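Hey, resending since the last one bounced:
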Amino acid sequence: MSFRFLIFYLFFVLEILSQTTENWNKKGIDALKNKDFLTAVDSFKKTLKDKPDDAFANYNLACTYSLLLAQCEDIESEVHIYNLIQKAIKSKPSYQKKLLTDTDFVILRGKYYFQKLSGKTKKDILTSITWFGPSPGAYGPMDQFQFKEDGIFIYSKLDMTESNPIGKLEFTGRYKWINDSQLEIQFDDPSPRKEIGKNKNLRVNYSDGKLEIQGFDHQFTDDNDRCSA
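The structure tokens again:
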């Protein structure tokens, strides 16, 4: 086999693969527009089988899984979506700018790792999502924190008293950012717990995707347990 023929053969193979990729990507987009999510998944996967780093297929497969997740459908895993997005951004950095405005990802905007992929710092992420406590029953998370950019936080918890079984109590306070792994909070009066009290600085350990707050016996994460509530 001559060198010239070998070059021609390789060019021919690459051209065929390129056309096949374009066809599967187009079929995937058409299926996505028609909300035929299973066909979309299958089409983008076929592209990635031949071209694992294809930015378009990785990004749009992530979009498809996100839409399925919004319907509480079973998907491979939420982490798999983040891996697909990461691959897409690596091959095509401009995709990072689309993340927070792409309506296909609405269900993920309140997630720590999604915000991180969009390029936000830990300080920015703190105020961009709601931090939920565990969900032991049918009413969803038992409590939650929301941190505002102006240094104020709102803590709310379910009021499970007999007179108001599904009510909600709210408490406010201020927080002080210390570094990427720690902050301090201080409740206003009244405080949600007598043992916490007013004017007491509480240490908050801030690791990837979770908060451990002094005085609380559980962690706070971005998971509101939406599909099992």
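The chain has a mean pLDDT of 87.

Sorry for the duplicate.
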